[in-house]
Give the backbone structure.
Amino acid sequence: MALFRFIMRSGPTVGKEFPLEAQEISIGRDSTNTVAISDAEVSRRHARMELRGSAYVIQDLGSTNGTFVNGARVSGMQQLNPGDVVSFGEGIVLAYEASMDYNATVLSPKPDQMTVQQPIPASISEPVPAPAFRPTPAPAYSGQVPAGPVPKPAPALAKPKKKFPVWLIILIILLLIICVCVGSIVLVDQLNLWCKLVPFLVPLLGGTC
């Protein structure tokens, strides 16, 4: 079975497949070539391919219109990879593809073909360990007392004391001074102490000592 193939995308036989399975492959217009393409753009001996390992390499044989891989002209040995586009001249275009998928997944055996390993029963004499008991935490409900200490609310800030207005203090002091003065005058007048205390004011007030 061929590992690779050419599929003609443009040329005299569009869609034709050319299986690539020989160690050496010749490409040209002559019918004796492995890949024979009957077109004027293809030389009689246009190119050759050689299988090296698991990949083909292609070489132009001095053709008139040249050999191109992915649009770049081949000047020596050029390795081909699946998905490359090989052109001979301007009108012949071949797609280089792999004939089989190397990455295909291997089919798994049917369930009835698979050997099911039965679990080995434990010996009757060997005691079976009991499963560890893990208490289930009780669900929380409203009104439940918390386990940790309840944080106390922060104390309210003390309100600043109102300061006594200065003007009221001054008014009280003035009233006290006025009361003392008036009381002193009344006391002096009642005891008739004007002549003893302030004799020089008595004539000014129209009195006599």
In short: Residues 102-116 have pLDDT under 50 and may be disordered. The two ends are 161 Å apart (CA to CA). The first strand starts at residue 4 and ends at 10.
